[in-house]
Structure formats: C-alpha cells, structure tokens
Amino acid sequence: MPLLEIKNLTVAFDTSVGLFKAVDGIDISVDAREVLAIVGESGSGKSVAMLATMGLLPNTATVTADVMRFEGKDLLAMSPAERRQIIGKDIAMIFQEPVASLNPCFTIGFQIEEVLTWHMGLRGRAARDRAIELLRLVGIRDGAERLGAFPHQMSGGQCQRVMIAIAIACNPKLLIADEPTTALDVTIQKQILDLLVKLQSETGMALIMITHDMGVVAETADRVIVQYKGHKMEEADVLSLFENPQSNYTRALLSALPENAVGDRLPTVSDMMFEAAPGVSR
C-alpha cells in the first residue's frame, strides 16, 4: 500500500468568470522512503495539488477525489480536527519563499517550539533543547543564539533552513518540498538540496519534490510525474524519463535545458508541438 495515494484529484476555483480547474483528474502516489519529483512549468498545478492534500486551500477552492489516503486513512473523510493531527506532524511541507513563510512578528525559536508544543507536547527547556538540535541538524551551528532572532535578521538560505527545521521537527513520514531552492543563489541551492537528500536518507521519510528544474529531478528523484495545465502528461522512473521520454511535452522540457542551447538561443517548450491531455489545447 502506498504511503500517500490520490486518485482522480480535481481542484477548481470559483472566479468571476466561472470555475477554473487548476488540477484536472490526476493520480499521485508515493511509497515510504521514496523520492517523487513533480515537475512542470509554473501554473501546471503542482503546488495546488499538494496544498489540496494538506487541506490548505482557500474556501474558493473545490477539491474532489475518488481516493485521498495517507497510510490507508481517508483524508477527505476526516474532520478538520482529525486532519490537523496529521498535517504538520506526519505530513509536513516546506513552502516557497522562506522569508515570506515565516511570521515576521515572532522569533525563530518561538516558531520552531510552537510546532513541538502543538504536536509533541514539549514545553520549556525540552522544547528549547529540541529546537537547538533541529537547527544543528539543518546546518545552523549557533542555534542557541539564533533562537532569539527574527526572520528579517537572517539570510534567505538561513530562513530556508529554519523552514526545514520546522518541517522535520516531528519526524514526518512524508515531507513535501515546494520549490525549496526558489530565490536562493546557486551555491545555497546546492546546499539545500544536499541537506534534503541527506535528511531523507537518514530518517527514511518519503519526499515529494515540486520543481520546474529538470536538473533537480535528475539529482534527487526516484520517480517523476510531469504535469501541464493540471494534467499528468507522463510518469516514469527517473532513468527512463531522461533516456526515453514518452510524451512530446516531456521531450520539450528536456530540450529546453541550458546545455541544449544553440548559439545564444535556448530552445523553449513552445518551440515544439506536444501531445495534449484531454481538454488541453495544443
């Protein structure tokens, strides 16, 4: 049984011009200890699908699925209170834009300890010691001093490490990383990716990596789902995807890698015709 199993997920938003389907009938599953990459252009529904799984979409969103199970438990049938016992503990998420994701009004220490108190029952010295340990695990050595810092007093890379510390605080069984290297410079991107892979290997948690970067996919994933306009275009293990992509859209994504530039011109996805999923215009 997969750790997370989703079948026929659809997410629609009520807009001034009617319903807009951001995700249209996709299936997603991930096994324990597996690294799954969900890749596609901006607007392909990658983040929306995961936010739907987490129950973090606004009331304007309508979420339906034939199956949405975690460890065999029906997420859609749970009450909000029951779901909160899982979200943030057994399923955790690292969001885009780490500086914006942290609350600017509270210290780093407060935000880490809040999770430990809510889900693990730790308070006082026990919560503080665990927070310092988590900062050390994510590569912030002066954790005791950093607990009193506010997000604006830390760099983007440090804030991303804090977000990772919060996400792994309760030893989740599934970690969702949504574009975890966005807005970071290349050197810090490599450090963050190496950290996530190291933590996944050491803890045995499953990891879903949301990205538009095929290089990240090649370095981190066991299996890949390619999305376009809310549809799943292809799913394969990472080696098969790169060596023998089945959809023209996947081939277009691979052709747009920087190493395929001709002179000073980089191929774009729009340069190639691709197979459209039902309802997707060519």
TrEMBL record:
Pfam families tied to this protein: ABC_tran (PF00005)
Topology relative to the membrane: Peripheral membrane protein
Cellular compartment(s): Cell inner membrane
Molecular function as annotated in GO: ATP binding
Domain called ABC transporter: residue spans: 4-254
Keyword vocabulary terms for this entry: ATP-binding, Cell membrane, Membrane, Nucleotide-binding, Transport
Family (UniProt): Belongs to the ABC transporter superfamily.
Name of the protein: ABC transporter ATP-binding protein
UniProt organism field: Devosia salina
